[in-house]
Design brief:
Elements: H1 3-17, E1 25-31, H2 35-47, E2 52-58, H3 60-69, H4 80-91, E3 95-100, H5 113-116, H6 125-132, E4 137-142, H7 146-152, H8 158-172, H9 180-201, E5 205-210, E6 213-219, E7 226-227, E8 230-231, E9 237-238, E10 246-249, E11 251-261, E12 266-268, E13 271-273, E14 277-281, E15 284-289, H10 294-301, E16 310-316, H11 321-325, H12 332-335, E17 341-345, E18 366-370, E19 377-381, E20 387-392, E21 395-396
Parallel strand pairs: 1-2, 1-3, 3-4
Antiparallel strand pairs: 5-6, 5-19, 6-11, 7-10, 8-9, 10-16, 11-14, 12-13, 14-15, 16-17, 17-18, 19-20, 20-21
Helix pairs in contact: 1-2, 4-6, 7-8
């Protein structure tokens, strides 16, 4: 990525999406090889008045070595200082900027997926704690790497693939606009408006109907919809995902029934899962099938007692920039914003009222997979049983 593009991405990360405040500690997390953007972000954060910037790098090839050679009974071990560091970031109300992928998709190809499914790193349970308590202003953003580019564009050689991926990421992050921040503010307001309309409807459930899909997901009485930005307990507004094109809510983890077919491949910590089909009964994913990578998702869904239940339901229309490209990025941040999706595992507290927070999914995992598209109808079901069109041909109906 050229220097000017690096600076624009760093400015967007620091000034807008994470919204770093003067005097804050700033944590930057990235994959090895992403040093240029980490350094650009550090410089911009200090220019903005950061008290201290702490950069940490995750090496996916060290993870691969562990999965290939470490004793089987050690794969779930995480040193306690990892979690303590994350909780302390919450204690000091830090800012957190994460660049993905931290495990470039495809790096773990050839690794036993059952072993891969047990090693959660670089994700740790404590990050969900500080997110749900809204202690940090944080954001996740993409940065191109050559291994990732070669998977997304296998028809091109390394440098050409990287150039194409860089161009696409520049577009979906709206860095090709004269004023990227203004462009994101406009999109943010659109997402807020849609989320407010969905919340006002107070649907009891959402149903998906499409090729290979007939799934009904129940909502909690106080389920709220969010989209675009959110705020910390200190009132700091930030964009957790950039790019973001979704509105999302917390479902009832005991009510999901039917069959769903994923409309895009997904990356689970470096392993690609294709042709995914899941059958739900009484809220549990009782049968998981896929053409490739199925074992890693089965391992994740068995990680704890609630890992096979849903923790997120998100809707995406056709007006976003990601879906229009028609590119499969093999990265959840991007692909989940190309199509409506659901997630196995942990739920977000901010999208449910206080009365229902004791009912939400508290699993240690969170795995999104895409189930929407122009040929998937999304219907809201009221508490009286009436059916209300929500998305048709990828267009909002509410």
């Amino acid at each position: 990525m050229e220097q000017r593009a690096l600076e624009r991405l760093a400015d967007l990360a620091v000034d807008f999406s994470a919204n770093v405040q003067s005097g804050q500690i700033v944590a930057i997390e990235a994959e090895t090889g992403m040093e240029p953007i980490v350094r650009a972000v550090a410089q911009r954060a200090y220019e903005r008045g950061a008290r201290f910037v702490d950069a940490t790098y995750f090496d996916p090839y060290v993870k691969k070595a562990r999965l290939q050679h470490a004793p089987d009974d050690t794969l779930e071990f995480v040193p306690e200082w990892y979690g303590k560091r994350m909780l302390q970031l919450g204690d000091v109300h830090a800012a957190r900027i994460v660049f993905v992928p931290r495990v470039s998709p495809g790096v773990l190809n050839g690794v036993d997926p059952r072993r891969a499914g047990r090693d959660q790193l670089p994700d740790i349970r404590e990050r969900l704690v500080i997110i749900n308590k809204r202690l940090v202003n944080w954001t996740i953003m993409p940065f191109p790497t050559e291994p990732w580019a070669e998977l997304v564009h296998p028809e091109l050689d390394g440098e050409e693939a990287l150039a194409r991926l860089t161009e696409e990421l520049t577009h979906v992050c709206r860095l090709d606009e004269d004023d990227p921040v203004a462009a994101w503010r406009e999109r943010k307001e659109t997402l807020h408006t849609v989320a407010d309309r969905l919340t006002e409807r107070g649907f009891d459930a959402i149903r998906f109907d499409g090729p290979g899909t007939e799934l009904t997901v129940g909502l909690l009485p106080s389920s709220l919809w969010e989209g675009g930005s959110t705020t910390t307990v200190d009132g700091v507004e930030h964009m957790p995902n950039v790019p973001t094109e979704e509105v999302y809510t917390t479902p009832d983890p005991t009510r999901a029934d039917g069959v769903v077919r994923a409309t895009k491949p997904l990356d689970v910590a470096g392993t690609i899962v294709k042709g995914l089909e899941v059958r739900f009964e009484g809220g549990h994913a009782v049968d998981i099938q896929a053409e490739t990578g199925v074992d890693i998702l089965r391992e994740r869904a068995a990680f704890d007692s609630d890992a096979s239940r849903l923790g997120e339901l998100a809707l995406v229309d056709r007006e976003g920039r990601i879906g229009a490209l028609g590119t499969t990025f093999y990265n959840t941040l991007l692909d989940e914003n190309a199509a409506s999706h659901i997630a196995l595992g942990n739920a977000y507290e901010l999208t449910v009222g206080a009365d229902d927070r004791g009912k939400i999914n508290r699993s240690a995992i969170h795995v999104d997979f895409m189930i929407g598209g122009d040929d998937v109808k999304v219907t809201g079901i009221t508490r009286e049983g009436d059916e209300v069109p929500v998305l048709r041909d990828g267009t909002w109906q509410i």
